[in-house]
């Protein structure tokens, strides 16, 4: 039941994302006329070799409009990024639910080791699909964004990808790429 509702929600979000992409293209087409006017005004100013008060006022208005158009397009793109993040989250939840429900064939035992090249490829693919934070000029990046460290009392949530230091079979400690399943406050692990 949960898988069906997740599928319908994903289909709904994909439709909304498609609409946002259309809106982005419409916004670009609408703002293109203004950008052409800016370019033509600059060309006229260069042929006359002077900046008159008329051109200064005209350019100020054109640039104000262009800035407003760019901000509107930015807002639409931010909404699209939020939809993409929500879709990815639902896909991950669906995958976990399917695994718990036993819908995947786990007849083969999991491989204990993977070649380093395969791991690097998986890491690279994962890095390319990490959520993208795009803030406004006045916004500060959130914790764990880029090189911004987490607060001292931060606890990773289930599903977060982390670098974890674990004991290997031979007793050595190694760093691995892991996904948080749960957190125990008692053991702080």
Q: Report strand order across the widest sheet.
A: 1-2
Integer-rounded radius of gyration: 25 Å
Distance between the termini: 33 Å
The coarse silhouette is: elongated
Number of strands: 2
Quick summary:
The protein is built from three helices and two strands.
Task: Provide a descriptive summary of the structure in words.
By secondary structure, this protein is mainly alpha-helical. The chain folds into two domains: 1-109; 111-189, no CATH class. It has helices at residues 2-48, 53-101, 116-128; strands spanning 161-167, 173-179. Strand 1 and strand 2 form a beta hairpin. Helix 1 packs antiparallel against helix 2 (53-101). The longest helix is centred in the middle third of the chain and has 49 residues, at 53-101. The radius of gyration is 25 Å and the shape is elongated. InterPro entries: SGF29 (IPR037802), SGF29_tudor-like_dom (IPR010750), Tudor_SGF29_rpt1 (IPR047288). Residues 152-189 form the SGF29 C-terminal domain. Keywords: Coiled coil. This is SAGA complex associated factor 29.
